Amino acid sequence: MSTRDRLVESTRELLRERGYTGTSPKAIQQRADAGQGSMYHHFAGKQDLALAAIERNNEEMTAVAERELSAPGTPYERIEAWLRREREILRGCPMGVLAQDPEIVGSDDLRSPVAGHFEWLRGRLRDVLAEGDLDVRLADTLMAVLQGGYVLARAANDTRPFEDAIEGAVGLLERAAAG
Amino acid sequence: MSTRDRLVESTRELLRERGYTGTSPKAIQQRADAGQGSMYHHFAGKQDLALAAIERNNEEMTAVAERELSAPGTPYERIEAWLRREREILRGCPMGVLAQDPEIVGSDDLRSPVAGHFEWLRGRLRDVLAEGDLDVRLADTLMAVLQGGYVLARAANDTRPFEDAIEGAVGLLERAAAG
After folding, report:
1. How far apart are CA A71 and CA B171, in angstroms?
2. Residue limits of the HTH tetR-type domain (chains A, B) (predicted)?
């Protein structure tokens, strides 16, 4: 990996583990095994690093969700596959944890790319729901089940609340899809 | 308000606005208009203040939810009233924001009382769901819809994702309750 890539990957890890407020440029340098001069050669500072990390999160997460949502199968089956995908629950959602960080929510520059990912996902889910004649507001309901599932699991330090939240939602959706 | 109460209320506000990591003892003193000596007379430090703030959150939130969940009406109606209660959406859930704070999740002393509130709510919702012959795992689904709704609303800086998430969930629950 290039130094630039190591810096971006280290920033992604630290944002997920410690949030934006809890991540210092020095911690990023240490994690990436990069010097201060090298870091400032590639990035203007912590915000610039965070924007690159969010952009890479967005690319990866969009590609994974798109595979599930555009796979063969009924709308219900595609959404079920997306909901039930294995996730690193106790690490939290890479995007969701950022939406809870007061410094990110307080800065339009940092908040906008996080919002952009959820907007894309909302639109994509609404298309699939509409295809199945389901209430398109369920896009937000189902995204919220995932995001809130992470919150409850992290509070409990146990994956069970996440798993129960998903299975409860799948049951409701199945019933709605059956008409 | 007594100095002790002002310190606890100021801690509650700051935890909700800036998280645990982003809140300093100095900021609490300034918000409470209390001196350092006075703060350390009442509390051993930031963790002790946070524990008192979480305890007061818990008391208030438990009382409000209990009113809705033990009101007259069918299980569906009581859960609907709880879901649709007016909330200060863009400020985030006082408990949920703490479950996203890396320093709180990383400390069993701080995480446990947050987990305890959600455990109480889960048990209470499960009782009401069981009374209505509904899947008790929906307790976590519905708690997650609320917590995730806050996350999506804060990411978007707009209350709409929260509102859509709730209305989608109410529609699914109504259908399930109708049998």
Report:
1. 27
2. 1-61
B129 vs chain A: nearest CA distance in angstroms? 12
CATH code for the domain of B146: 1.10.357.10
Structural domain of A167 = 54-177
Matching residue, tokens 């689904």 = B141
Q: Do B155 and A115 touch (CB under 8 A)?
A: yes
Q: A75-84 pLDDT, tens per residue?
A: 999 999 999 9
Question: What CA–CA distance (Å, rounded) separates B167 from A96?
Answer: 21
Q: Which residue has the tokens 């959150």?
A: B57
Position A105, amino acid: V
Q: Is A151's CB within 8 Å of B144's CB?
A: yes
Indicate if ipTM > 0.85.
yes
In 3D, which of A83, A78, A97, A132 has the Cα closest to residue A20?
A: A97
Instruction: Report the number of distinct structural domains present in chain A.
Output: 1
